[in-house]
Amino acid sequence: MIWHKIAESKAELLSGFNGDLVELEVAGKSICLVKNQDIIHACVAKCPHAGGKMVEGYIDALGNIVCPLHRYKFNIKNGRNTSGEGYFLKTYLVEEREDGIFVGI
Length: 105
Prior knowledge:
Layout: E1 3-7, H1 10-15, E2 21-26, E3 29-36, E4 39-44, E5 58-59, E6 64-66, E7 73-75, E8 91-97, E9 100-104
Antiparallel strand pairs: 1-9, 2-3, 3-4, 4-8, 5-6, 6-7, 8-9
């Protein structure tokens, strides 16, 4: 895994959010960043089922990321499908360090 700096601080990163989801490119990959209870998580930008853009989805009351196409739900911490379809959403580690915010890819 290689760590990539995505922001100087959490405040800088959160300023780019319009709601709870934002998409950005890291190391040539589009990823979706998720803000849930002031914690940042990261996952692939597209749903593994039909390629829906996760950034166009939402976070439900249980903290799952929900795909905008078919409403498949995924646990943002581990990528497990919580709505029963059996898919897995690739997630990435996010670390807040003294010198910035990093995503491990």
